[in-house]
What does this fold into?
Amino acid sequence: MTAKSLTRRSLLQGSTAAAAIPALGAAQALPVRHKEGASMTPVGLTVNGREAHLQLDPRTTLLDALREHLHLTGTKKGCDHGQCGACTVIVEGRRINSCLSLAVMHEGDHITTIEGLGTPERLHPMQRAFISHDGYQCGYCTPGQICSAVAVLEEIEAGIPSHATDDLDRVAFSDREVRERMSGNICRCAAYPNIIAAIRDVSGHAPAEQKA
Ligand code: FES
Ligand code: FES
It folds into this structure.
């Protein structure tokens, strides 16, 4: 065997070994990805008044638990990064982005989704107002907008200030307050004026132009 052939063989062996390393790595990675079942965690939630007992990968977001495990697909996944508000649900009376929260963090919590606010036969006043004011076009952001809007009126009623509040002792309804508080809910169809009109309608406040 010549030094030349040895070198060539060494090279070939080296190349084969190098090619095998990523293949081996991938083969080893697969079982890791599929070992999820071994680490499932029991999670108990009360969703729209009904108890749910789930076995979840502890990395499951609340959004995925609702959509993929409880099949409550009214709550939408927009960005999955806390930037659009499409996934807004109400947890223990406070609105949150469910894509930013792990389901295991909500053991025992009461959660309201768009399906729990009203039904087609018995709409929540906010749902009715969004329809009568055309507060949507494609509708993708709408469940999050409506859940947020319901919580916004409760926040104002409870005297919780926002960045737009001038007098911290007197938190009052205004379009400016609502715009600020709804700023985490993005609507790519830009139905914003009609969304504000719907929220104002439910709040019982007359449009600004009628007050003049
Ligand atoms: Fe949660 Fe966009 S999907 S904020
Ligand atoms: Fe289309 Fe809001 S209605 S994104």
